Amino acid sequence: MRIATVWRLGIKELWGLVRTPALLVLILFAFSLQIYVAATATPFTLNKAPISIVDEDVSPLSARIATAFYLPWFTPPQTITLSQMNRRMDAGIDTFTLVIPAGFQRDLLAGAEPAIQLNVDATRMTQAFTGAGYVQAIVAGEVAEFARRYRAEEVPPVDLVLRARFNPELNPGWFGAMMEVVNNVSLLSVILAGAALIRERERGTIEHLLVMPVTPVEIMVGKIWPMALVVLGAVLFSMTIVVQAWLDIPVAGSLWLLMAGAALQLFATTSLGILLATVAGSMPQFGLLLMLVLFPLQILAGGLTPVENMPDALRWAMSAAPDTHFVSLAQAVLFRGAGLDTVWPQLASLAAIGTAFFALSLWRFRKSLG
Length: 370
Prior knowledge:
Elements (H helix, E strand, L loop, with lengths): L2 H16 L2 H10 L2 H8 L10 E5 L4 H7 L11 E2 L2 H9 L5 E5 L3 H6 L7 E4 L4 H24 L23 H32 L1 H6 L5 H31 L8 H25 L3 H18 L11 H7 L3 H13 L5 H30 L1
Parallel strand pairs: 1-2, 1-3
Antiparallel strand pairs: 3-4
């Protein structure tokens, strides 16, 4: 393999990328605005959930319960009638509707243990599962304080002192922004590398390369290093400008150690992109393969749910995926400030998986050329 040839082939790919505005816009959006959206949007927490109250009791206790729901968890409650409840929930106006029956306060003071009905729109899954617990806790707290006739915090029998490590404010934006950068590394690198090879095939320029004094390994490396370099530069821009400067999210560990892990991850994922491009016959087929491969990789890599929660067979299978090791490395470096002595097994795994993907992709590429 001649370095000069690989260099010229890589420069050709960079010029091809510059002449493709759609890919440039995709890269810019994925590592800027998309990171901001992932940090500021909170889909996994209760936020401004619409709630209405059917108050048939019209008592001081029911009014007290109605005023206990406030931003940012809930929108200001709307007082409606029982005949309006089903229509509003069918229209998607309310996620929660609390029905306080007549005589609720009277029965409570008499010790009759009255019931309150909570209607939940379970099609809004995140808000339904989380919000039902919030509503139950709020109503139970207000009723208990009303029955005691004074407002005070209950003293638990055991004092539990909570100390949140690595994210003291429990800010979900920290996790969302950094994991979005990690996921976009795999997404963009596979797309760019695979699209570069399919573009050569669809335009017929792959035959032009074959009549030149170049080898398949030179062609393949000439497509891998420029796309990896572009994504690596986008990661550095996103972590320094978007995450640290714009969103003001601290990075606990060494950014350069993360970049080293990202370089090995790009070596594996760009090779995977070439492999998928050799299997697909056209760009639409390549897009379908991306859906079948990338989505399971990102969902099961540990960025959304811990790998330890998965079944043993699935966890063993995902150990062969580069995303699993890169997510583990990124979380250790970005959140816990881990050093090389901690993440070297992930670096070694990424290098081994990348080498295997590169060899398999090269074999498939040579077979497709033949």
